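Usage

Read records sequentially. Each one opens with the input sequence:
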Amino acid sequence: MKKLIGVDLGGTTVKFAILTAEGEVQQKWSIKTDIKNEGKNIFPDIVKSINHRLEIYGLSADDFSGIGMGSPGSVNIDKGTVIGAYNLNWRTLQPVKEQIEAGTGISFYIDNDANVAALGEQWKGAGEGSGNVVFVTLGTGVGGGIIAEGNLVHGVCAAGEIGHINVDPTGYECTCGNVGCLETVASATGIVRIARDLSEEYAGDSKLKYLIDDGQEVTAKTVFDQAKTGDQLAEIVVDKFYFYLGLACSNIANVLHPETIVIGGGVSAAGEMLISGVEKYFKKYAFPQIKTSTKLRLAQLGNDAGVIGAASLVNISR
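and closes with the structure output:
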């Protein structure tokens, strides 16, 4: 049985894995993403790394049915191109498929990085066995991927922009130019923004308020850690976050009725307290039949979601 290669292209690291056709990871490695010179070294570095590893493991192009890759930016899955991946310094159209196939001799498939992570969780993670999964990733921004009836949903191009669901029309301005997007309040930076705003009017005793007023570094982890200790301000901040994310998840579920909404990304490290907090508001706003049948779950694959989901593109696309 031929093997698969999964590639997860990020702004700081390119992660690679060789997997069996069934999705079992056999080897993993990574290289630094070289974004200098408008990202011109990224393709050659990926090709060189793959070819070098195949040589080490005594494998050839014939041993593989394909390479799948998740990439930031706007991806044309049919043409295998990417544009607008600004964290890679890719401002112009990049012929990814053409270059990687030419350099490795292996068939190549590509999709958006959040879509690919959704596929990973659906294939081997928290959504395993279900054809209806929504993946929400909470990091520096908020991303997502939608799998409906077993298929990744692309829409005309940009389906799955979960971070831009409007949860507060009078809220913060988003980098996209709109106001009140989920990303402004449920990302790692959004949680800190809420904490800073609420601390200004909070008069009670609070370690979180002290840290903010003292000019110390405050992250989303700081806020959740303080909430766990019973810090009242932190609890108020976290509850506001739960409200926004629960409202967004209920809206998603009311439209799509997935079996599972998987929550991942750095902020999800808060763990089960996050799921139970979001669930409270999800159940408040979801349609009755949906609130009892759609489950909220933490992502299970961590950093491997990208490479596993990328490899699954090969099976889906052939």
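Summary fields computed downstream for this record:
- The two ends are 15 Å apart (CA to CA).
- Residues 128-300 form a domain with the Nucleotidyltransferase; domain 5 fold (CATH 3.30.420.40).
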